[in-house]
Amino acid sequence: MIIGLISDTHGLVRPDVHTALAGVDLILHAGDVGGTDVLDELALIAPVRAVFGNTDPVDEPGLELAIDITLGGLRVHVSHGHEVGRVTARALASAYDADLIVYGHTHRQRVDRVGGRIVVNPGAAGARRYDLEASVGRVTIEGGVVDVSLVGLAP
Question: Would you say domain 2-152 falls under CATH 3.10.350.10?
């Protein structure tokens, strides 16, 4: 199973997102979506589930407060991250009991391991901010082995 991770699109789906997430079985969006047009565009690649970010309107259709699902035998939690206060891998691992925790908000791509669990921020995929590279993530789950990769997007 291959899961595409994306966050902080803020209303923009870069053209190379289609290439970066090609072949994924599911896309998980960790918030600050920026409108249903983003979800519609991502749905051309694979089914999408998305959570609210701190900039998304509370009545935005298609967004969830959080996602807690099991994929490939892995317990997965997705939220924007801002809800824990100071956003760190440890704070998220303390707040959520999942094998894989996906978040956004900081725009900084990270893969951390906390007590045997994986905490991933795929980075911001929308308009470039804070002099950070735009990126998405790919999680491959095969035979109980999890591989996470971050994929840079064109400026």
Answer: no
